[in-house]
Amino acid sequence: MAAVTPEVLTSTHVEKMKKKKLPKRYWEETEKTDQSQRRPEEEQGKAGQNQNKSTVKEKSLKRKNGESLEKKDPFPGEAPIPQKQLQKFQRGKKCKVPAGARERLKEAIAISEAMSEHAQKQAARYDLLLPEDAGFLEGDEDEDTNTISQADIADAVDITSGSKYFNLHLSQFGPYRLDYSRTGRNLLVGGKKGHVACIDWQTKDLKCEMNVMETVNDVKWLHTEAMFAVAQKRWLYIYDSKGVELHCVKKFNDVLRMQFLPYHFLLATASATGFLQYLDVSIGKEVAAICTKMGRLDVMAQNPHNAVIHLGHPNGTVSLWSPNQKESLVKMLCHRGAVRSLAVDKTGTYMVTSGLDRKLKVYDIRAFKPLHSCFLPAGASCLSLSQRGLLSAATGEIVQVYQNVLGSNPVSKPYMAHRLRGQIWGLAYCPFEDVLGIGHGEGFTSMIVPGAGEPNFDALDTNPYRSHKQRQEWEVKALLEKVQPELIGLDPGQLSKVDQASFEQRHKEQIEALGFDPLAKDKFKPKTKKKGRSSAGAIEKRKRKVAHEDQRDEIRQSVQERTEREKELKEKSNEKKLGNKSTLDRFRK
Amino acid sequence: MQNENLVQISFFNQLMLVHPRKKQNERSEASVQVSEYFVNAEGTGDKVNLSDLLGTVEKTSGASNKTKKQLRNLQSSKETLELPLNKQQTEKVSAEFSVQLLVSCWKNIILQNQKAEQMVFPLNQESSGPKRVEQVVAGWKVQTPLEQEIFRLLHGSRQPVNDPVLTPVEEQSLKAMSLEEAKIRRAELQKARALQSYYEAKAKREKKIKSKKYHKVQNKAKRKDFLKQFDEMVKTNPEGALEELKKMELSRMEERMSLKHQNSGKWAKSKAIMAKYDDSARKAMQEQLQMNKDLTQKMVVPSDDEHESIEEGLETVPDFVNDPETVIDPVNPWMRGQLTHEEPEVSCVTAEEVQTAEEENEEEEIIGEFERKRKLRQVVEEDVVEVSDKEEEEDEEEDVSEFNTLFRLMRSEKTREGSNQTRGGLNTAGEEDEEGLLSEGQIRVRSIEDLEVLDEVVEPRAIEEPSAPQTAAAEATSEPPHKKKREINLKEVLTKEAKAVRLPFLPTVVDEEERDEQISIIKEAFAGDDVISDFIKDKSRQEAAGRPAVVDLTLPGWGEWGGVGLKPPRWKRKRFRIKTAPPPPRQDQKLPDVIISEKRTASVASHQVSQLPFPFQNTAQFESSIRTPIGSTWNTQTVVKNMTKPKVVTKLGAIIEPMVKEDFIKSKTTSKLWLLEIGHKKKKKKLFMFLVLWGCMLVPVRFAYNSVFVLIFFYY
Questions:
Q1: CA-nearest residue of chain A to B448?
Q2: Which of A122, A253, A376 sits opposite B639 (nearest CB)?
Q3: Do residues B589 and B599 touch, judged by C-beta distance below 8 A?
Q4: Residues of chain A whose pLDDT is less than 50?
Q5: Secondary structure letter of residue B511 according to DSSP
Q6: Segment among A547-556, B67-76, B91-100, B439-448 with least mean pLDDT
Q7: CB burial readout B91-107, b (16+ within 10 A) else e
Q8: Rounded to an integer, what distance in angstroms lies between the CA atom of residue B443 and that of residue B142?
Q9: Do B163 and A408 touch (CB under 8 A)?
Q10: Sign, CA torsion A117/A118/A120/A121
Q11: Cβ distance A401 to A392 under 8 Å?
């Protein structure tokens, strides 16, 4: 009864007084539920007194409002997921259960299907945790975006973003090659004349700087910011982030270009002698050395999708390589002149090439078919693709950035352009940033390209903001999850397929791999006996005794097979004979 | 059914053959009691036939016609009955059957468990920890007025009545307490275990020691201890002391009987000889004598026995033992009592020390030897390592030299190729010029705009068409004949229309020098290159290599004339040239500007699944079943957990008991099962009750219980 009075009060004008609520106690909620639970009982009690009335009332109410009196969940079931998102996370096609399948098969398929559907749904649901959008640059009416200068952009954007446009004037040590670390925090530049420096480019913090007193052909970060490789005049050197020389790998000579395969911990190098070599940086071992027989290799790219190395050659071909095969996986004729530069997009679908014939071509490397090509008057000496698919091409002293190159629509006009002084030697987009790094004769330029970087990073894979501890942890995990070089191939999903080679073929491969036949029968070796019975003659005699055993076995087998075959033939012929008889024969005994 | 029949038959036989082995005795004299066994029927030896019995049935009116007919049939049938199975066989049959029955009822649950995604053991586990009151008193309602009153009061005071009796925090704290206790308990257990292991280790170690001296000392010490304890025992536990005394008495008796420690043994005699010259031997002898004395001494009552024993000792000890010793041991050992223990002990200890010292020396020597050996080995190893290093270096050098030679080779090839190219260049120079004019090519139509563009393009193409055949003709000369079949013209693909990109604003300042440079570069690039024909050649070479070669087994001159310029006849060629089946079409068959290697990658194959796993019927099914990765890289946390959950979960420390039938059969108790259980537990009384019930009293006792109940089951 006491509980009723406050309700009465609240309905009156004293409402404001009661606004301050008591702190909630854990039993309060239960009390309410108790009341709600008890209500039906009380009602029942009442119902006993005036059953007829209440039922009549209820019925009338129901008639008036239909079924609206019962409260229903307005959103029953789990929240729906848009089809588009589901599509995004779909893996392969569903398997249908065949008509006459066994029970076990049905169950196995049902379980796996349910599991993959669940995984897909969950992934689609979590997609909402990737909220960031890539930016873009939009000009005014009748204004081409490529006329907007970098200085204007830097002025317009916020200070931190503006500071990402900068120049390093390094005119002494010649054209620069560059590489960004996988997290995008660190920049490595290597001048042709021996100047090597690594910089935390956002804070402009110089980590190390040195002159190796030798020609530097290429520079590359290894799996972390702690190590980088420098291809010098003769050998390949590995330094740590403080510039201390860790290794001089003399097996790798005359290296011109390098690529690092992060998930395999492989450093792939292409040399002037035409060798493609793979160095496993986790164990410091050369995995494969392939003589490409294609001459000087100075154009190289990697396919991030399947870790296949693409090489461009002076005869206009592009060849694809894996460390497991001594010959190229694929060789495609792309240009009529030498190939000058190559780039492969993140999904491994498209390849962009430029050649001495001043053409820029886009290929679909799943089908190895050209999609479209365009003619650049100056030709493109360097190409680079960003994470979001922006293509930058160095044409002479001008860097052009193209949008929507990948896909069907042809190249029309550049999205952005920037003019530099001196020959461009290296182009690279910074991961997770809207920044394009340009190495040229006069030093290094960092250029702002809105919409270039991937806005949503996977912090467990590459975290630009990771701490020292996180980096250590990541390194251990990455090493544990290292993919073996044997798994590199055109189809990265090869592993999940059933090997359908015949037993003979597999056996042959096994013999090749092992160097001997594991299933071979041992040659008969007579026992050594004493008392002069193991003389050469005796041994020979004993050998002679079993000499024909194998042959006999074979003969026996072949005879058996023949008899079986004959039997079958006979049966067949009998059947044929029977086949001539009337249909009523089947009722015979 | 077979089993059933067998069992029935055997039963029947058992009924019919009443004591078949018992020999029938002849009746010799009259007696008061007439046993049925001793009654001889008329015409002894004759068997009672069925027909003899049936005669009466025919006459009786009570029997139904049906049975009569059946009996008549039985009589007329001349089939002999089968021999009854012997005991072992019947037992075996019945046992098998019972096992089958037992197993069959488990089948379902086993299947179910096999299919289950996850099993949690122990089954039917209850949640540990304190239960909530409302869980315990579920379904209890406030009924009496008193209870109602109390509850009202409780409500008024806002006490938790129904729901959480224990708040989560309280529950946690409770659990924490238990955890602490558990920790303490565990620590105690750990300590106990550790101590036990130490003692065990010690005992083992001591047991292993072979030194007799050591054990002697040890035994002595024990004895001493024991004596001390005995003294205490006398005060505290007289009964125990008495028992000990008895034991001692017993040992004394034994000693006196065996005279083990007299100097009558082999060892003692040899020592006696030595004792003259060797102090240690003498000491040993004395010790033994002391032992003897101690053992034979009467402990409690110092009386005449003592003197006797002394005398005995005096008698037994030879003189030469004591003579020289008087100097060393002035005290009479017979009078020393317990003190005498210490003297030899000390000497023992010193001896031990000497020995240990010696041992140490030996050990040192051994260690030294080991070290020497190790050093030697290291040297050898180092040598090996050095050798291997050298080998590696040599390998490297070889590699480098290989590289160099290859490089040189390649260079020479290149120069050759270059010369070829220059030669080819002359041929194709004309083509090059023409190709400049060509704008014909594949156009990808993707949108409506593209279609419009296509229309525009059509006209110029029509004009340019005549030039195309010319190039084709030019190609025909250089290409191998099979190339003609190609639908797609390579040149068309390569001279695909390229859209020129114009930069509207950029000051495309091209210095004259640069332009000249570029032009020269381009000229250089195109000068000697006939890139396309080279590529085509390469491809045709690859294709040829991929085709299986024809095996020619013809023997020229075999069976006919041979000689220079003579060809083997056609029939021979036909017969002895073996053609293998052509390989499947190449992947790059329809891609003229691509060469795809047809080599199988064996490296991945070793990691692949080579045989289809069990329930799957084809590869597509299996592949689709593993298409979703289970790693955390590709999935959300919950999904990974769900996908990789273990098949069996066991609770740590819980006893997993074997499954009981009650677990899965809740209300399905049938009479059959009950019977089986009785049989299983061999409850004799119940079993015989059944026997009585079913009127099977004649079933002999030698029947196995199992078979009996199975039998009953069948009748039932």
A1: A409
A2: A122
A3: no
A4: 1-18, 30-56, 58-64, 66
A5: -
A6: B439-448
A7: eebbeebbeeeeeebee
A8: 87
A9: no
A10: positive
A11: yes
Are B410 and A327 within 8 A, CB to CB?
no
User: How far apart, in whole angstroms, are the C-alpha atoms of residue A372 and residue A379?
Assistant: 16
Contact of A270 with A298, CB cutoff 8 Å: yes
Give A-chain residues touching B526 at CB under 8 angstroms.
Answer: 336-337, 357
Cα end-to-end distance, chain B, whole Å: 15
CB contact under 8 A, A147 and B115: no
- Which residues does chain B have within 8 Å of residue A291's beta carbon, measured at their own beta carbons? 406, 410
User: What residues in B contact A409, CB-CB < 8 Å?
Assistant: 446-447
Q: Which helix (H) or strand (E) covers residue A349, if one does? A: none
Task: Report the alpha-carbon distance of residue B593 to residue A368 in Å, rounded.
Answer: 9
Chain B CB contacts of A30 below 8 Å: 160, 162-164
Q: Give CA A13 to chain center in angstroms.
A: 67
Tokens standing for residue B455: 């229309």
B266 contact partners, CB below 8 Å, separation of at least 6: none
How far from chain centre, in Å, is Cα B17?
56
B164–A26 CB contact, under 8 Å = yes
Name the residue type at position B123: L
Q: How many residues does chain B have?
A: 716
CA B707 and chain centroid, separation: 39
Let me know: does A450 contact A165? Beta carbons within 8 Å: no
| Joined tokens for residue B509 | 């300042």
Q: Is the peptide bond before B122 cis (omega within 30 degrees of 0)?
A: yes
What global pTM score does this model have? Answer: 0.57
Q: How far is B472 from chain A (nearest CA, A)?
A: 18
Tokens matching residue A427: 């182009």
Q: Please state, as a whole number, how many other Cβ atoms lie within 10 Å of the Cβ of residue B555.
A: 11
Q: State how far the Cα of A577 lies from the Cα of A571, in Å rounded to an integer.
A: 10
**DSSP letter (8 states) at residue A498:** B
Burial of B84 (C-beta count, 10 Å sphere; 0-12/13-18/19+): middle
Q: Is B299 helix (H, G, I), strand (E, B) or coil?
A: coil
The pLDDT-based confidence of B497 (bands split at 50, 70, 90) is low
Chain A residues in contact with B531 by the CB 8 A cut-off are 315-317, 333, 335-337
Ordered DSSP codes for B365-381: HHHHHHHHHHHHHHHHH
Neighbours of A529 (CB within 10 A): 12
DSSP state of A224: S
Cα B173 from Cα B164, distance rounded (Å): 15
Query: Which residue on chain B is closest to A459 by alpha carbon?
Result: B633
Quote the CA–CA distance of B688 and A292 in Å, as a whole number.
93
Closest residue by Cα to residue A257 from A361, A170, A177, A354: A177
What is the value of ipTM here, to two decimals?
0.78
Integer angstrom CA distances of residue A319 from B221, B560, B596, B604:
90, 53, 10, 21
Q: Give Cβ neighbours of residue B355 (< 8 Å, ≥ 6 apart).
A: B211
> Between B424 and B209, where is the model more confident?
B209
Token digits for A114? 């349910």
**CA gap B566, B9 in Å, rounded:** 90
Contact B498 A147 (CB under 8 A): no
Chain A stretch 63-122, residues whose beta carbon is closer than 8 A to a beta carbon of chain B? 91-95, 98, 101-102, 104-105, 107-109, 111-113, 115-116, 118-120, 122
User: Cα B498 from chain centroid?
Assistant: 65
Instruction: State the pLDDT at residue A219.
Output: 96
CB atoms within 10 A of CB B4: 13
β-strands A317-321, A330-333: how paired?
A: antiparallel
Pairing relation of β-strands B119-121 and B648-650?
parallel
Contact state of B607 with A498 under an 8 Å Cβ cutoff: no
Ramachandran region, residue B700 (left: φ > 0; alpha: ψ -120 to 50; beta: rest)? beta
